[in-house]
């Protein structure tokens, strides 16, 4: 399944402003050239607070490229996997969040929210 682009504002809308999904798990993945892949967990509350702060920050909000995959058909634990590429050329840091749909919302509705652009908001 191919990843689709989204924005920090779309993520904040889905996770915080009108919660349609919750963060099941979040982690840093470090992909250093000479070291095996390393994963470091991130507290889900800290991750949510970071998403909110980044969405509110006009200067730095576009420094992270966000993509997501809809894995609802193949996973029993999450519906979406979101990747935030921090463009760290030394270590290759990627933030990964695993999201689950909150009751009352659908995967299709969340995917529509994640696909919004400035032209259709």
Feature tags:
121 residues, six-stranded antiparallel beta sheet, 32% strand
Overview of this structure, please?
The protein is of the alpha+beta class and 121 residues long. It has one domain. Helices cover 26% and strands 32% of the residues. It has three helices and six strands, in the order E-H-E-E-H-E-E-E-H. The chain has a six-stranded antiparallel sheet with strand order 1-4-5-6-2-3. A hairpin with a 7-residue loop joins strand 2 and strand 3 (38-42). The longest helix has 13 residues, at 44-56. The model has no long low-confidence stretch (mean pLDDT 87).
Number of strands: 6
Strand order of the largest sheet: 1-4-5-6-2-3
Q: What is the overall pLDDT average?
A: 87
Q: Enumerate how many helices there are, as a single number.
A: 3
What's the short version?
The chain is α+β, with helices and mostly antiparallel strands and 121 residues long. It has three helices and six strands. The chain is globular.
SSE layout and pairing:
Elements: E1 4-6, H1 8-17, E2 21-30, E3 38-42, H2 44-56, E4 65-70, E5 80-85, E6 93-101, H3 107-114
Antiparallel strand pairs: 1-4, 2-3, 2-6, 4-5, 5-6
Helix pairs in contact: 1-2
């Amino acid at each position: 399944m191919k990843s689709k682009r989204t924005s920090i504002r779309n993520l904040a809308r889905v996770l915080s402003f009108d919660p349609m999904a919750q963060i099941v798990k979040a982690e840093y993945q470090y992909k250093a050239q000479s070291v095996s892949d390393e994963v470091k967990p991130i507290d889900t509350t800290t991750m949510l607070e970071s998403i909110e702060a980044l969405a509110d920050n006009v200067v730095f909000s576009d420094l992270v490229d966000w993509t997501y995959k809809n894995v609802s058909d193949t996973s029993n634990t999450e519906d979406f996997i979101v990747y935030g590429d921090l463009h760290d050329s030394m270590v290759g840091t990627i933030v990964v969040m695993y999201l689950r749909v909150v009751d009352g919302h659908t995967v299709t509705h969340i995917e529509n929210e994640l696909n919004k652009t400035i032209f259709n908001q």
